[in-house]
Design goal:
Order of helices and strands: EHEEEHEHEHE
Distance between the termini: 24 Å
Helix content: 25-40%
Number of helices: 4
Largest sheet: 5 strands, mixed
Radius of gyration: 16 Å
Strand order of the largest sheet: 5-6-1-4-7
Length: 136
């Protein structure tokens, strides 16, 4: 099945493994919150046990260094795409309000980005992420 939209997560490649997984999870949650229509139906196994719904389309994971993350952010905003962001300062907080505070304290050009996530038309995402490779 081909989707009209694409979901992409971009993770800074120099992070520890636990940080990459944490960032990806938080950013996917941002996509699900902003685009509830991309969440599928609940799952059920053959025994009748119910499970939570998942995002119903593939999420492409890209790797980038800090300058490439900043470039992707600027490209997204220039194209009217509102991304989810995760900054390095957020690793030192313990709750959502504190996360928002550490982001608010820094001007956009100075954000120490470690991750971005976005959902938009396929061609728009391709232009935003031009030059980036899948994370390995």
């Amino acid at each position: 099945m081909q989707f009209d939209t694409k979901i992409a997560v971009v993770i800074r490649t120099d992070l520890e493994t636990w940080q990459k997984l944490n960032v990806a999870a938080f950013l996917a949650g941002g996509i699900a919150a902003a685009f509830p229509q991309c969440v599928g139906e609940p799952y059920e196994d053959g025994s009748g046990t119910g499970y939570l719904s998942l995002i119903g389309q593939p999420i492409l994971i890209f790797g980038a260094d800090r300058p490439a993350l900043s470039r992707a952010l600027e490209r997204a905003l220039a194209r009217g795409v509102r991304p989810a962001i995760y900054t390095e300062d957020m690793f030192r907080t313990t709750h959502d309000a504190a996360n928002r505070e550490v982001v608010k304290a820094v001007a956009r050009p100075d954000l120490n980005l470690v991750g971005l996530a976005m959902r938009a038309e396929r061609k728009v995402i391709d232009k935003i992420l031009d030059g980036l490779k899948f994370h390995n």
